[in-house]
## 1
Amino acid sequence: MSATMDNMLKQTVESLLEHPQLWRGARRSAPHVIASGHAELDASLSGGWPGGALTEILLPQPGIGELELVLPALLRLGRERRWIALIGAPYTHRSPAWQNSGMNLSRLLWVHPRSARERLLAMEQAMRNGTCGGVLGWSDGSFGTRELRRLQLAAEHGNCMGILFNVQTKAGQMSPAALRLRLECNDEPEDESLTIHLAKGVRSQMVKIPKLMP
């Protein structure tokens, strides 16, 4: 190849690399994570919950320990003086988990939507505006792939840790969430722990952690 052709090829490649619509993988920054407070889980999640993204947690029913699972991360976000929004939570601020958590309850925003549409809009706006460090929402199973995609984009836009507690029957539905896991409660008296089935975003595996609250 002549020197002239070599220079022309080099200039063409450099021009293409500077094109604003070209994505270069090397320029992508490392994902921001928020430590979960559970060493084994953090090891499986490469450091913790994904920040600026949506995590979908599938439950057989609310109240099996999902709140205790994310409380350590919420405490960290609370210390950063960012708001924590709870959308459609089946709990109140008087629940033992909140009372015993050490959380500054004045930093919690409680939103009680009257419909699935209001629930979606509340979660989307809370994550997108950038003032909330964490947004937790409880779904009745009415959100489809399109709605989850909207929540994922909102979490990215607002750099917010979004958590959607969804019904277990959605396991067969495609999910655009950055991380997806399924939570089970071990009811045996001698085994008070939570089993976490990690699915999307990490290598499929199970993690068992002790319950934070009796």
## 2
Amino acid sequence: MKLTTMTQVTIDGVMQGNGGASAEDRRNGFERGGWALGRGDDDTHAYMNATYERADAFLFGRRTYELFQSSWGSLTEQDVPGWVPVMRALNARPKYVASATLADPAWSGTTVLSGDLAHAVRELKAKSGGELQVHGSGTLIRWLLANDLVDEMTLLVVPVILGQGARLFPQAGPDLVLDLVESRVDSKGVTIQVFRPAGRPHYA
């Protein structure tokens, strides 16, 4: 399977609290949650639905897994008009959680990866299929990138600057060249950019 990530970020790279409805939005004094609500147009919503639909499995960090379980795991189709494909995929497809402390996951179809994570992810990627998708899970994405395990990365960039909050990329970290393979902008100014990692940069 190809390991892909999809992340909503602001212009200044913040990914925290895009929906604004959970306790996660308030960690470390964050007060500007909900910045992505209502920002994408119908084409962007359709793109996100189609992305989830083509997933063969999902990989989460523990925090995002618990947020998704408490929301998508308990909703019905009537609760999420316009997002039924997302809900169906998350509930029906296998889910893997990178965690050393989660012992008894309640969400059906969940497997905890608690040992050698790099080995476990490589084994998942070696399976036949289309995509092993990572949504949210910023800490996990940074680790996957640092370990050269990401095949494709999609950023949905919302035209807002927050000035606070957890960012997708750390202030200091490994460097990486990205090849742009797809780019589009919707009628509300949200850009969708799909990248493939292409090794380390060369400097003058």
## 3
Amino acid sequence: MNLLHRLALCAVGLTLVLVAVACGGDVSPQQTQTQAVQESTAPQAQVQQEQQSDQSVAPQSQQTAQVEQAQEEQQAPQPPQAQADRQTQQVQQPEPPEPEDQQTAVTTASSIELAAAPILNGYQFQQPIEMLPLSDGSFLVAEQRGYITRFIDEGDEIEQIGVLDLTESINFGGEQGLLSIALHPDLQNDPYLYVYYSPRGQSVTRLSRFRLVQGAAPPASELVILEVRQPYANHNGGAVRFGPDGMLYLGLGDGGAANDPLGHGQNRETLLGAIIRIDVNDINTSTPYRIPTDNPFLGIAGVRPEIWAWGLRNPWRMAFDSDTGQLWVGDVGQNQIEEVAIVAAGENHGWNVFEGSACFRSQDACDALPEAVAPVAEYTHDDGCSVTGGEVYRGSAIPRLSGRYIFGDYCSSKIWSVTADGDLIEHLQIEDRIASFARDNDGEIYVLTFNGPIRKLVAAR
């Protein structure tokens, strides 16, 4: 095992609301207060460039990115074949495997033993990328193919209720598709579903709002909030979250290919390679979002005011700690290092000058960036190849996990936990590739995998 803690930088020490109203309309943002923008500074990529990936050797100062998509596809969750279209239905589930066949536990140095127990009668998902709890105990599950479905566990049967079907509206494959969802935190008064996806036939990613009407999100209710031009087909990020402040946060990758060839990670004139923070309350077609007045770069020339933090490569999944409000991010690495970071306002997390704690470019470039923020934890490609960001445990069933951030690796299917001061523990390894994590209303944590059931983390017997 070769798990690394960050020591230093090189230069520094639904219930778904039943309503009967709808809204709609695509939008074009205004230039000043509401900059719902298509990034126009990045050049259009050639088809061959869009297939580049990240397994090349770390670049010399003048090296260009030349990699193959087949290798890049190991760097982030890849979907299986598309499943059959799902309609609202009640489904009789097959008998699930015995629990011991589905649980793998490892005794760690701290003797925190965990297991992963299937839920929903072991229902076999193909490409789930997000699961949100509803107040009645049911779950909203989003799949990369384009489905958003409500799952109700009724014992021997699992009821499925279709909420939104975007399968005919998205580019699906590789790192494109339906990438993230979030519910408005005041769902009773603001019955909205927020969806981040890759619209078909366009080189952009889109953040939209849909109104929930009688448990469904009619496509006609879509309000386009933001579109960001994507020069390549990978590193689209993929997490939309509401913070404890009621603002919406969105993680965006550096735009793709290998080595950040367009320099987006350290360029604050683009939203790529950043986490943005916007206000989506009381919006409409003419004002699709607002810039919060306390954003760190508001009013600074040459910097996009939406940016909350920057210097990220591909933040695949992030989560707020419900107790502390800290924002935890899993940032996918390039050749050697996967990292977990706590991200705060105005911070530069170093990509592509640093890859995790390692100097990625020249030593002179690293020395010139002393403000780059260290990851909380990292691991090398001896232990995986693509970090999957997770959730902070705030449940009651496993008290010794309280306050620990649970995350995993897509390739090795290992699951770790870490504290804010870098205490890193490996807990278990499951069979399927880890695409995402979820947390229920009680603070318990679930693991979402491709080609397998959704599993709940439990104390090993």
